[in-house]
Design goal:
By secondary structure, the chain is α+β, with helices and mostly antiparallel strands. The chain has two domains: about 140 residues, no CATH class; about 220 residues, no CATH class. Strand 3 and strand 4 form a beta hairpin. The termini are far apart.
């Protein structure tokens, strides 16, 4: 069988053209979790600091820490430096929890970079840093090659889902470790079937999933807020994210509604001890009732425990759910019986980062473990629809 020489030549040219384009664009179509070695905390990220020392833009500038990125990315660096990501390992709440349960599994998300030949944590003071997400094997991980008329500063690698919520899933959606792995001498974690943190799954079930994702709200690329990573500790953001309303259902019964605005997951989310607490007072400041929005668990009994089971079981979830389809807000309603027929009530909305039991033994002052979001007097709607004598 004879092969047309011109056709063969054409095919060879096409093949080499494709190879050339791939090499020059340095575009590797891999999953971001594979490239970054994000694996829900099951292991640390083997990392040599000299990976960065070779990423030189001159003989005098070498990159060893995230601070070395500041000269060209000042605003992004400053935003990250003020973020909770940077404090992931150093903040008091985490350090207290780690002292109670010193598990390497926790460290693998809160300070994931380790020297490959030892268990030494690299740059724990940087927490989740520029290096954690953007640097592997002497290359900078990006979504696209920067537009530049001059020579590019770094070697780049593009990965297909680096700018999607999948990037966040690894550290923000995982199950409880199983009894077997927690009691194992080899310290190898295996997950049970019970969710411990489910922020990514909550977003997937949200009516906002087709409109925005984690990246849009928490990373805010292309804006002055880029890499701020606002979340449950960003009190100013939370002030603009909740509205509390009340209305009469009968002469002595009111409904109190907490509305979350453009929060595309349940709230509170993340750490299982986190809670929203709504305190209700009468118009004279007399305390009436507290409503707690949280997930509540109980320890499993010895009879319930099997090797692959979770050490805890969810017994109640009173959080604000994710928005439903077509909605960008969500509500949680509570019922309060009142003796009088007031026009207003006073409310306080708090975010609490410690469970009530831990408060008795934790050295962390309440001023740092509990933050005020809202404090205001609100009108009770529909008052004129009911008389004092109307009982419900």
């Amino acid at each position: 069988m004879k092969i047309n020489f011109q056709i063969l030549t054409f095919l060879v040219i096409i093949l080499f053209s494709v190879i050339y384009i791939e090499i020059n664009s340095q575009e590797i179509r891999l999953n971001s979790l594979e490239v970054l070695n994000f694996n829900k905390g099951l292991s640390s990220i083997p990392y040599l600091q000299d990976n960065l020392s070779r990423l030189e833009i001159s003989s005098k500038i070498q990159f060893q820490t995230s601070k070395d990125c500041k000269s060209c990315h000042k605003q992004i660096y400053n935003n990250w430096y003020e973020s909770r990501h940077r404090q992931a390992h150093s903040n008091e709440l985490y350090q207290y929890s780690l002292s109670k349960e010193p598990m390497e599994w926790c460290e693998n998300c809160h300070a994931p970079l380790r020297h490959p030949n030892s268990k030494k944590i690299l740059l724990p003071e940087e927490g989740i840093s520029c290096l954690t997400c953007h640097v592997r094997n002497q290359e900078i991980i990006v979504t696209k090659i920067p537009d530049s008329k001059e020579a590019l500063t770094h070697n780049y690698k593009i990965i297909k889902d680096f700018d999607t919520a999948k990037l966040c899933e690894s550290c923000h959606d995982f199950n409880f470790p199983s009894w077997e792995s927690m009691n194992s001498s080899n310290h190898t974690i295996k997950y049970s079937n019970t969710s411990m943190q489910g922020t990514y799954a909550e977003w997937l079930s949200s009516g906002m999933r087709d409109e925005s994702d984690c990246i849009d709200c928490h990373l805010s690329p292309g804006t002055k807020k880029s890499h701020r990573f606002p979340g449950g500790h960003s009190i100013e953001e939370l002030k603009n994210s909740f509205v509390v309303r009340s209305r009469y259902l009968s002469g002595n019964t009111i409904a109190i509604t907490i509305q979350s605005i453009r929060i595309a997951h349940a709230f509170p989310t993340g750490d299982l001890f986190r809670a929203l607490k709504l305190n209700i007072y009468d118009s004279n400041g007399i305390f009436l009732k507290q409503f707690v929005l949280s997930k509540k668990y109980r320890l499993t009994s010895k009879n319930e425990r099997k090797n692959n089971d979770s050490p805890k079981v969810l017994i109640e979830d009173t959080r604000i759910p994710p928005p439903e389809k077509g909605e960008d807000s969500s509500n949680k309603e509570f019922i309060l019986n009142i003796d009088k027929h007031p026009k207003t009530i006073k409310i306080e909305l708090w975010i609490d980062y410690l469970n009530d039991i831990e408060k008795f033994v934790s050295p962390i002052p309440e001023s740092k473990s509990k933050k005020l979001i809202l404090s205001e007097e609100i009108q009770i709607e529909n008052r004129d629809d009911f008389e004092d004598s109307d009982r419900g």
